[in-house]
Specification:
mainly alpha, Arc Repressor Mutant, subunit A, 2 domains, two-stranded antiparallel ribbon, 68% helix, elongated
């Protein structure tokens, strides 16, 4: 075992230490902003991956109990990034148990790694350990993990792209978060392409030119450093949010000025909190005719006025339940504060938009 640190080792360690510290800080802020939890887990996954590199770099692999330590964490990168993005862009949509299915490949590979680790613990002889792992196809399975990681990146980048494309920040801090997410998205694309090229080169070069993989590990360390520092900077809870970017208008054009007025009335003035709000009152407030306003909402949001306003009210209820709970209010009291004027309509509209009753949603928080 050697103790001296190369520049390569130092870069890896700096990234790992930064990642651990920032992850702990992100976990502290995850109660009110769930997306911080998945960002922290993603950073820790990158840190955990780099322990593989240091085991070989510090010649620790042949030490009994250290080599073959279970580590299939690369299979968590893509799903954690996707869940981080989902909870960031759609914070009022709760994650469910079925979302754990995203981690089945990781669970299977990790379970296999545990079996190999326990098997190799039966002997202290390095050669025997290698023979045991060989009989269990350790190298082949770990190579398969690398291919599965690339496939996962492609699948989850495909799933994440519509969220990135449709996310419409309503405040300046949210705009900064969206820029961060887009950079991370591109970073995953670059890492995926680089890993793919390296795997292809392995067919022709074997494991010669080890600097190829060292550079890959430095890229991972850089990603950890960037995710940790910038992610923590964006970890505060902001009062604004992301709205899904409205569909592009068809042949009928809608006044940009009217859309800006409508957005301001909803996002800033929060006119939907008034239970007496009607198409006529909102049209008067915006200085347009009722047909013009109705057409604008229908064209941009594919909804009538009532459906549009009720959707915004449901989002408000979800956000308050997630952030503050009921407090001293009943569900009906909270509903009325958010613009609903009857219990029956509140329950009906809430279930239409979320697929669950308000009580069921509250129990999941």
């Amino acid at each position: 075992m050697r103790i001296e640190l190369s520049v390569f080792d130092l870069l890896i360690l700096i990234g790992m230490v930064t990642g651990v510290i920032c992850s702990l800080l992100l976990f502290q802020r995850s109660a009110r902003k769930p997306s911080n939890r998945y960002l922290a887990l993603g950073i820790l996954a990158f840190v955990w991956l780099n322990t593989k590199t240091l085991l070989h770099s510090f010649d620790l692999w042949d030490i009994h109990g250290v080599g073959y330590f279970p580590n299939a964490v690369e299979l968590t990168f893509a799903p954690l990034f996707y869940l981080y993005l989902r909870t960031l862009v759609q914070p009022t949509v709760p994650l469910r148990r079925k979302d754990l299915l995203h981690f089945i490949p990781f669970a299977l590979s990790q379970a296999y790694s545990v079996v190999v680790y326990l098997a190799t613990l039966q002997t202290h002889d390095v050669l025997e350990k290698r023979q045991i792992s060989g009989r269990l196809f350790f190298d082949e399975v770990k190579t398969l993990d690398e291919y599965l990681m690339l496939v996962g990146m492609v699948v989850y980048l495909y799933l994440a792209y519509p969220l990135v494309r449709q996310a419409n920040p309503t405040t300046q801090p949210r705009a900064a978060e969206l820029r961060f997410v887009k950079l991370v998205f591109r970073g995953f694309v670059v890492m995926g392409l680089y890993s793919l090229v390296n795997l292809i080169l392995n067919f022709y070069l074997g494991f010669a030119y080890a600097w190829r993989w060292q550079l890959a590990n430095v890229l991972v360390a850089s990603m950890v450093y960037y995710l940790g520092i910038v992610g923590y900077k964006n970890s505060e809870v902001h009062t604004g949010g992301f709205a899904l970017r409205p569909p592009k208008p068809g042949p009928e054009k809608v006044s940009v000025d009217l859309l800006n007025k409508l957005t301001a009335a909803v996002e800033i003035e929060r006119v939907y909190l008034d239970p007496k709000l009607s198409l006529r009152l909102l049209a008067q407030r915006l200085g347009v005719s009722e047909p013009e306003l109705s057409k604008a909402i229908q064209t941009q949001y594919q909804k009538n006025f009532r459906g549009f306003i009720n959707e915004v009210r449901v989002r408000e209820v979800q956000e308050r339940l997630r952030r503050e709970g009921l407090g001293n209010l009943s569900l009906l009291g909270l509903a009325k504060e958010c613009g609903f004027n009857s219990e029956a309509s509140f329950y009906r509209v809430f279930k239409e938009h979320t697929g669950m009753t308000p009580k069921q949603y509250l129990e999941q928080q």
